[in-house]
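hey so u asked for the seq, here:
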Amino acid sequence: MAALITRVFMNGNSQAVRIPHELRLDTTQVEIRRNEAGELVIRALPADRGAALLQALQGFDDHFTQLLQDDRQDSAPPQEREAL
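ran it, structure tokens below
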């Protein structure tokens, strides 16, 4: 797809960008950041991020959970340090 030119405008105290129909996002929230080259990057966020996390966690089976618990039990106890 060729680059599109769009309008930047003020919306209250915030700057806004009109997103053309061809690039419409199917979400209510986005993440926006500036990359190393100074360009703005907009990434659509899933509608229900909590549900996506819960779904990912369901992929851990009992064997994996047991390995985590065993590793935790085998770790060294916390170091004692003098109070600040």
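Strands lie at 8-11, 14-17, 30-34, 40-44. The chain is about 25% helix and 20% strand.
lmk if thats what u needed
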